[in-house]
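Complex 140.
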Amino acid sequence: MEIEIKHELPDSGWQIVAQTLKEVGMAFYEPHVHKKAFENSHTSIFVFHSGRLIGFGRAISDGVYQAAIYDVAVIPEFQGRGIGTIIVKNILSNLPSCNFILYTMPGKEDFYRKLGFRKMKTGMASFRKADNMTLRGFTE
Ligand SMILES: CC(C)(COP(=O)(O)OP(=O)(O)OC[C@H]1O[C@@H](n2cnc3c(N)ncnc32)[C@H](O)[C@@H]1OP(=O)(O)O)[C@@H](O)C(=O)NCCC(=O)NCCS
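Predicted structure with coenzyme A bound:
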């Protein structure tokens, strides 16, 4: 499969980002909100197939020793073809001196385990919608 990796997205792409996140059951906002979040991140990865955006992800980071991965998603028809792996590996290699943390959708842990991630024993989170995150299986 011929794919292209980019670090930027034209304005027309943010609607697809919002739509994709909605479709895969992740938190989604208005397109301009995602644009701001990705543009304020240290590393953004966008994967294109024949000019079409099919997956993306980003990391916030100090650029030196700590980083956190967010918003990794592949459009459903392209899932299971190695695109998610490419996104995460590109993020990791862009910040080679960093530790990485993330929280995954419940049930998606094995995807990250295969990329070398291990479950954290002391992870703590303060979510804005704390009760909702407990209901959705993210927190105790
Ligand atoms: C999770 C996601 C990013 C994975 O991307 P992908 O392109 O489908 O995954 P890949 O094809 O690179 O798979 C890599 C490996 O992880 C495994 N894997 C992929 N999705 C998995 C899942 N949901 N559960 C367990 N293992 C999974 C694959 O079987 C593959 O294993 P293999 O190398 O032994 O064959 C993608 O399916 C997706 O966008 N899902 C919905 C959104 C989501 O849950 N994002 C993660 C947010 S934390």
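The first helix runs from residue 14 to 23.
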